[in-house]
């Protein structure tokens, strides 16, 4: 059933890029491309600096989560700690450690990369580097000045059940929880 | 460790919204908001119409996947079939059936909602409704004119292993695969 088995038959070529709006978080660009059949079209790309996120588990297998208002979707969400890279070439592990500390006050002894998530590659280049952190130590929180977050603990099996029941919705959070839970089940 | 246990202490109030760029796929808006401490700031929101995606499994427990060039991230990706709603109020199940048919030519007898994914709620309101489809019937593909996709089949356990090893990256795809696999394991 493979229709275009050859990668070349799927590939688009970029002819030109222009910034149509230099936003605060994303830079909106329009790229002129040539499609595999030779026709041209415009692709809209939301350019994002990238981010890191942390599945942090304490000694009792509780997940450290943050509750925060996400004005874009009009709800208070439950998410794993996360935040943007400081620069496109920042080590994402450095970013992960900073965001965990800023939002929850915690540091961790053991870090493991779970995966890199493409949040919505149809129109956006955002990658989120997701880490598993263990061996947690409490410290003082120091969130950004426009960041109001509530830190909670939730047993990992409960978090897993809440993803499976459709009660948690955030992409990085759902993927991080399911991967951490599956790792434990398969260990 | 809960710092702002009360939802009101997390809530932002929207004072004004303005469209800063009416794009092709997203409408970029800046919203003036009042933070919980009374200060004001601007939140950037990428407004998206929403989408549906389909975890389609054949009678041999193979997943139906599409390979396509995602110019935003510069790679050919492996994803579950998906596409945008035709209108904000379109029934997402109607959209899911259309996208499965357009991209793969298939129809399905049995549909089940898995979840609704918020792809990246820090700056975007995109929701993706993810369905599980079974009882597949082959038909003819009719992709959009700017859409070049390669349809492949992959055993669900292999797809699961490729998510866990970090080899698949697309958010809706990873979440759909892990949820479908976990459902089978727990059945």
Largest interface pair: A-B, 81 and 81 residues
SS field, number of helical segments of chain A: 3
* Structural class by secondary-structure content of chain A: alpha+beta
What is the count of β-strands of chain A? 10
Instruction: Give the count of structural domains of chain A.
Output: 2
Topology, pairings included?
2 copies of one chain form a homodimer.
Chain A: E1 13-22, E2 27-34, E3 40-47, E4 51-56, E5 62-70, E6 75-79, E7 82-84, H1 92-104, E8 107-118, E9 127-137, E10 149-155, H2 156-164, H3 171-186
In words, what does this structure look like?
Two copies of one chain form a homodimer. With 187 residues, the first copy, chain A, is an alpha+beta fold. Chain A folds into two domains: 7-47, no CATH class; 51-186, Nucleoside Triphosphate Pyrophosphohydrolase, CATH 3.90.79.10. In chain A, 20% of the residues lie in helices and 42% in strands. The first copy, chain A, has helices spanning 92-104, 156-164, 171-186; strands spanning 13-22, 27-34, 40-47, 51-56, 62-70, 75-79, 82-84, 107-118, 127-137, 149-155. In chain A, the strands form three sheets. Chain A has a four-stranded mixed β-sheet with strand order 7-4-9-8, with helices on both faces. In chain A, strands 1-2-3 form a three-stranded antiparallel β-sheet, with no helix packed on it. In chain A, α2 (156-164) crosses α3. Chain A is globular. At the A-B interface, β1, β2, β3, β5 and β6 of A face β1, β2, β3, β5 and β6 of B.
């Amino acid at each position: 059933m493979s229709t275009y088995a050859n990668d070349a038959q799927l590939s688009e070529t970029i002819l030109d890029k222009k910034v149509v709006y230099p936003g605060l978080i994303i830079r909106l660009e329009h790229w002129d491309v040539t499609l595999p059949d030779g026709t041209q079209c415009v692709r809209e790309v939301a350019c994002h600096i990238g981010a890191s996120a942390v599945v942090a588990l304490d000694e009792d297998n509780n997940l450290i989560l943050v509750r925060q208002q996400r004005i874009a979707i009009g709800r208070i969400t439950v998410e794993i700690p996360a935040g943007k890279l400081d620069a496109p070439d920042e080590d994402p592990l450095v970013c992960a450690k900073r965001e965990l500390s800023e939002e929850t006050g915690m540091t961790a002894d053991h870090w493991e990369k779970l995966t890199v998530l493409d949040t919505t590659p149809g129109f956006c280049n955002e990658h989120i580097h997701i880490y598993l952190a263990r061996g947690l130590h409490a410290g003082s929180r120091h969130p950004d000045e426009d960041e109001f977050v509530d830190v909670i603990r939730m047993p990992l099996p409960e978090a897993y059940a809440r993803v499976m029941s459709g009660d948690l919705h955030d992409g990085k959070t759902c993927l991080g929880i399911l991967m951490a839970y599956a790792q434990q089940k398969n260990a």
